[in-house]
Design brief:
By secondary structure, the chain is of the alpha/beta class. The protein is 19% helix and 33% strand. It contains 7 helices and 19 strands.
């Protein structure tokens, strides 16, 4: 920090945490820098996850979506912390906070990285592995921002590996036809290519020490954080029941089946429930069919799991939006539902 940088104090209520924010830095970024894990989602003023209320002090808001923060809320001193700059000491009331999240805070750091390898898992899913210049601490289910400096593109990807000590990170990534980042994964990026990683971010991480059933629900590259959580669950030695629901279009879109079978052998009460939404006769499929939220609804009703359920849903926005009411109707407590919506990049 240079001697000329102006810093202000921010007091976060009702948790009573104080932190510094530099002029020109958003309050959310200041939290990341100091290892104070505030609720967040897109980090771009689009989702409203970091909404808070300014109790005192002078602020300025950068451009944001009025869908995330309607005008009537802004008139009542509500702000999005990812778009809030401080111009005095502040007192801020957090509207969404998680005591466990705050207790699991990890400071966001930048890392230099090199490409280790890229492996094709399906026609449009790739496994990207990178080596960092130093180990990164993270919780299973979190993500980093990965940058390709040569083309100036940054994308958010969830780690697929368990958070063990080490410098290698892996990511399960879906290719998009015109994806500026993902299009580089089939040859343009060669082993040894330089990347930059910044993180960890994310509030959808595996909560530890729970005994009730664990539901993992995903589709597409949502497999990445769920596989990290599942691997972490195996390593933890916890014996809770696990139900892993995964939605795919056809049999060819399923992958890592041998690895999942190994997990089934390692856990005492584990079921993998894949569902095909567009099964063809060639698939010779006798498993679940339909959209994954429909399958979750049927299976939960049929099994009647007992105990306090924790549910983690990761995947495309329509899938998450369909799954959430299903979980609520199955009496999963709202504060035990964690989700990560995967949105295609718009730039």
């Amino acid at each position: 920090m240079s001697e000329t940088t102006t810093t202000y104090k921010v007091r976060l209520e009702p948790v009573g945490i104080e932190m510094d924010v530099e002029e020109g830095e958003t309050v959310l970024d200041a939290g990341f820098r100091q290892g104070i894990a505030l609720m967040h989602g897109c980090k771009e003023g689009q989702c409203g996850s970091c909404k808070a209320r300014v109790l005192s002090g002078d602020i300025e808001m950068l451009k944001y979506s009025t869908f995330a923060l309607p005008d009537y809320e802004r008139e009542n001193e509500h702000v999005l912390l990812c778009k809030t700059h401080a111009y005095s000491d502040l007192e801020v009331e957090l509207l969404n906070f998680d005591e466990e999240l705050l207790s699991h805070s990890i400071a966001v750091k930048s890392f230099e990285a090199r490409l280790a390898k890229v492996t094709a898992l399906t026609h449009d899913i790739r496994l990207l592995e990178i080596d960092l210049d130093k180990p990164m601490k993270f919780w299973a289910g979190q993500y980093v921002d990965l940058t390709l400096p040569e083309i100036g593109v940054t994308r958010a990807f969830s780690m697929a590996n368990a958070p063990v000590d080490g410098t290698r990170l892996s990511f399960i990534i879906k290719k998009y036809p015109n994806g500026l980042f993902s299009s580089q994964l089939d040859g343009a990026l060669q082993p040894g290519a330089v990347l930059q990683a910044k993180g960890p971010y994310g509030t959808c991480f595996r909560r530890e020490g729970r005994t009730g059933p664990l539901l993992l629900i995903g589709g597409g590259s949502g497999m990445s954080p769920l596989w990290s959580m599942l691997s972490d669950q195996v390593q933890s030695g916890d014996q809770r029941p696990v139900r892993f629901f995964y939605g795919a279009r056809t049999r060819a879109d399923l992958f890592m089946l041998d690895e999942i079978a190994a997990v089934a052998a390692a856990l005492p009460d584990f079921q993998f429930i894949p569902a095909l939404s567009h099964a063809t006769p060639d698939d010779q499929w006798d498993g679940e069919t339909g959209l994954i939220h429909e399958v979750v609804q049927r299976r939960l009703a049929a099994e009647g799991l007992s105990g306090v359920i924790d549910a983690y849903a990761c995947g495309p926005v329509p899938m998450i939006d369909a799954v959430l009411p299903v979980l609520q109707m199955a009496n999963v407590e709202p504060d035990h539902i964690f989700f990560d919506k995967f949105t295609p990049a718009t730039r």
